[in-house]
Amino acid sequence: xxxxxxxxxxxxxxxxxxxxxxxxxxxxxxxxxxxxxxxxxxxxxxxxxxxxxxxxxxxxxxxxxxxxxxxxxxxxxxxxxxxxxxxxxxxxxxxxxxxxxxxxxxxxxxxxxxxxxxxxxxxxxxxxxxxxxxxxxxxxxxxxxxxxxxxxxxxxxxxxxxxxxxxxxxxxxxxxxxxxxxxxxxxxxxxxxxxxxxxxxxxxxxxxxxxxxxxxxxxxxxxxxxxxxxxxxxxxxxxxxxxxxxxxxxxxxxxxxxxxxxxxxxxxxxxxxxxxxxxxxxxxxxxxxxxxxxxxxxxxxxxxxxxxxxxxxxxxxxxxxxxxxxxxxxxxxxxxxxxxxxxxxxxxxxxxxxxxxxxxxxxxxxxxxxxxxxxxxxxxxxxxxxxxxxxxxxxxxxxxxxxxxxxxxxxxxxxxxxxxxxxxxxxxxxxxxxxxxxxxxxxxxxxxxxxxxxxxxxxxxxxxxxxxxxxxxxxxxxxxxxxxxxxxxxxxxxxxxxxxxxxxxxxxxxx
Length: 511
Description:
The chain contains 9 helices and 11 strands.
């Protein structure tokens, strides 16, 4: 028994092999079990991650769909267009096209900044719109005030027209009698036409001829009415102008006066005025009403000092006298129209630049001006703001034989007629240049004699000028009288020999 225990038998080997195999199998089974558990755990974790990713992806897809809906383009999620900014068939390309197209000058790299820029631009435009609306409202108020002023002027014109209606009615009655006679003749003509059964075209032609005759009569009547109106203005000198201020004090020794207007009224130095008596019949009527001319030299807020340019010793300036200038009025700017040659001091030289300085210095404007060549310098048309149409020297085309001068004179005459008709329609007063200068208190500054101006002042009375070298010289005999200042003994005026030096005779021969 003891011997049997000490031997290795097949059973032992089998048990050893079985035990070893069992141990290996058990180990492998355990390892596979652990690996399976790890795989199951990894699968569960992966499924959780997948579920989370799916949920996140679904949320992102919903967000992308909402974003595409907010953008406003009908695109699928597969049409994002990353890397294709120029492809308008995809989202990014379409968004870039919107920024470039609708962003304009304020376009930015993305939607957000572009919208902010557009909003800022919209706010700026709205601000400018409100500003323009405010300016428009102000202009509308100014226009309303101008309409009211125009209505006042129209009412004054109608009143002046009514005052002339009596003479006009006489003319109208006479014209009506003439028209009645014409109507009688027309009736007879129509009866004769009916008797001879003339064709319809002949009847229309006869009617047109009669109508033309009546229109001619109407034109003549209007011309008569215009002449009557002008004659009435010449006789009554109607004026609706108002004084611009009052003289409150006078110092005749210093030739100074003081006015009740100043810088608060926008008065400036060098402004000139004409002076009228305190009991005047209306300023701006005729130059005969003017008693003096003054020029402002100093200005204070409520008063001004002016020097006397010209005065009538028989009608001295007194406190209470009123002043007037058509160029100036407190708080207003007037416009004036000028036509014709402008010679302010009668020296034969046209003073258009000086005229511009006078108008500008008094705070007025020129809205129409015809140059010396007959062309427009300024042409805005006469309107309700035009105070006067000032007419200078209108040349007569028949007085010249030069074609260029005749054409120039005809242009000036034509434009004078055009402005006169516009002034009549607008109720604008027409005055000549001399009256205008008297109204504004202008004083001529001419001091020099200019040879050759035979139709102007300061003409030398004795002698005659030659027209060229060695030309026949006209009579140069003096009166023979010698001024008393050259007679030292004051014994009376002396008489000269009447001889003229041979140096001044034709060909140098003495007399």
